[in-house]
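dumping these here so i dont lose them again. two proteins, back to back, each one seq then structure tokens. dont judge the mess
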Amino acid sequence: MSLRNEKKDLERLRKGDQASFERIYYSHHPKVYGFCLKLISDRQIAEEITEDAFVKLWEKRQNIDPALPIGPFLFKITKDYIWNHLKKISRETKRREQYSSNYQASDPRNPEQELIFNDYLDFAETAIENLPEKRKLIYNLHYRSGLESREIASRLDISESTVRVHLMKARQFLHKYLKTHLEIPFWLLLLLQ
């Protein structure tokens, strides 16, 4: 995409033009995804961060200066997501180690603990069932069937950006849903992310 065309697309994007957004997406997606994959080394997480970065670009479209190339702005958003992900991984690792040491200190064959664990997993399943139908379908196709956004978009005859928005909103809903039920142990939240 030439700078001249990008400038026109950025001007239209600021006004909410989805076609311009998609042209920018297809033009910059490979570079953003490659950048994420280089730093994260996990294809699924790199794709999620890439999707989140483009969703954030859409949300912040009115802050875009069409006179400037979009690349640096987009990479700043992406770097922030990567940094947050790496901090989150570090926190989760510490919490999992703490949970693991606490769990190992107790009897792992305790049937009561196993029942409680299964109840928590059932509760997590209930949270997923509370998603709106289309969002639940997209969530299951992505996380349970392992399909990528473009495959889901093709199957459901919707745009990839719509798939990405549904996935982001599903993750936000599940995190909030589980967080509001304080009797749920924190480790279950970690398992579902």
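---- next one ----
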Amino acid sequence: MKKILKMTNNEQGFVLVASLMMLMVLMIIGIAATNTTTLELQISGNDRLAKQVFYRAEGVIAETLWDIRNTADDPSLGLNSLPWLHSDSAAALAGRLAPATESADVHDDAFWAANAAVSALPAPGLLQRIAVDRGAADDYGLGEETVPYRFDVYGRNQQNNAFTAIKASCQIPITW
């Protein structure tokens, strides 16, 4: 009986078991922190890519508006010299980009391949643009030579798994 009591009072080796338990808890916390950090890095990388793609598409729209404005100011060129500029009733668009189909059209790769032009901006990914001349504004009153024309401009950027297509509507005064 004395021998059994002596064994239960023996605490040698408890420090080893306690330290192994602490190491196991710290290892689990370290693994969880590593997984969380990895996930956060993936999220921030995807967010950065989405913002880059959006701003590049916005840059394509700015480039397109600049081209329309400068081409309209040069009478020797005329707006017909822009292959990506379509009139509202253009046969090439075949009823596309109307309010009823616009959402589907801007996500249709075949539509962009047939009607868009690749942007000249130096950026990775596929940058495309389309502009639609919606005609002269009804209430312009700027004089007989200057008429504001309405344009819908679409910019699209596709890089890796990120895709953005955006639209801007504007009026540009054109002097004839």
